[in-house]
């Protein structure tokens, strides 16, 4: 009887440790998933392991990381934009209005694609937020182009543009923004300011209320992104920048050190 009792104990102990090991691995896996935000509507959290977690590649280039439409971010703005545009008449576009719509669509793509690239490299939440709003803006422009029967110049591939000038701008900003997080933020500030100017010019060149409605929404989005990038540069940590004052366009050095 004593031998039988000992044998039972020998069987129970390995089983107990096996169960404990399974539970521990499961907890570690849950923690890892929570850290990357993998599978959540808000997209992955900041971290240098983003690309490996999502199955993409790190670093510059149009293939770095997954495409935005594979799940970085979600928005439900399209229905609202469509419903609001239905309230306005559809007129005949001038040549200038057509050119502005097509240019602004690709310009919005620069902001989105750069933000995705910079998030892959630097893992800063400001870039992910801007990518999300950039996708919403692209959706708005797509609705506007469909409304007027315009061929969409926006290419699906990240970092690829129909407009050669915008292609050169993107390529240069990927290169310079890969050097430091400050350079990436500086570039992002420049892009948002560029978008605001383009939108102001387009609004001044049209009398169509539906175009102005979309442009005004995009402008508010750019203003929000601009402020986010400016404050991120002011409050950036030594993890990205190292010690020393942060200087960016539009903010004095004494403000950054206050």
Anisotropy-based shape: globular
Largest sheet: none
Distance between the termini: 79 Å
Which sequence of SSEs, written as H and E, runs from N to C? HHHHHHHHH
Average residue-wise pLDDT: 74
What is the percentage of strand-forming residues?
Answer: under 5%
Quick one: how many beta strands?
A: 0
Specify the structural class: mainly alpha
Q: What is the count of helical runs?
A: 9
pLDDT below 50 for ≥5 consecutive residues: which ranges? 15-75, 237-258
Helix content: 55-70%
Radius of gyration: 24 Å
Q: Quick gist of this model?
A:
The chain is mostly helical. Helix content is 65%, strand content 0%. It has helices spanning 2-36, 50-54, 77-85, 95-122, 125-147, 164-177, 181-204, 209-234, 253-256.
Describe the structure.
With 258 residues, the chain is mainly α. The chain has helices spanning 2-36, 50-54, 77-85, 95-122, 125-147, 164-177, 181-204, 209-234, 253-256. Helix 7 packs antiparallel against helix 8. The longest helix has 35 residues, at 2-36.
Name some characteristics of this structure:
258 residues, mainly alpha, 65% helix, globular, disordered C terminus
Write the layout of secondary structure elements.
Blueprint: H1 2-36, H2 50-54, H3 77-85, H4 95-122, H5 125-147, H6 164-177, H7 181-204, H8 209-234, H9 253-256
């Amino acid at each position: 009887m004593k031998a039988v009792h000992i044998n039972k104990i020998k069987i129970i102990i390995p089983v107990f440790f096996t169960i404990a090991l399974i539970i521990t691995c499961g907890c570690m896996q849950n923690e890892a998933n929570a850290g990357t935000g993998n599978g959540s509507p808000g997209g992955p959290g900041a971290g240098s392991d983003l690309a490996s977690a999502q199955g993409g590649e790190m670093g510059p280039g149009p293939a770095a990381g997954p495409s935005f439409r594979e799940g970085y971010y979600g928005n439900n703005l399209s229905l609202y934009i469509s419903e609001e545009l239905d309230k306005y008449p559809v007129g005949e576009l001038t040549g200038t209005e057509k050119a502005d719509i097509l240019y602004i669509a690709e310009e919005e793509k620069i902001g989105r694609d750069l933000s995705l690239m910079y998030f892959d490299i630097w893992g800063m939440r400001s870039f992910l937020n801007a990518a999300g709003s950039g996708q919403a803006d692209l959706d708005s422009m797509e609705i506007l182009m469909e409304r007027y029967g315009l061929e969409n110049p926006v290419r699906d591939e990240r970092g690829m543009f129909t407009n050669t000038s915008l292609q050169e701008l993107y390529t240069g900003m990927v290169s310079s923004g890969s050097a430091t997080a400050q350079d990436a933020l500086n570039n992002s500030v420049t892009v948002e300011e560029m978008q605001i100017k383009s939108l102001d010019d387009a609004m001044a060149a049209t009398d169509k209320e539906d175009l102005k409605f979309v442009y005004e929404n995009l402008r508010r989005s750019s203003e929000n992104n601009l402020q986010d990038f400016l404050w991120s540069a002011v409050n950036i940590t030594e993890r990205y920048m190292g010690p020393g004052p942060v200087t960016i366009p539009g903010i004095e050095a004494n403000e950054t050190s206050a």
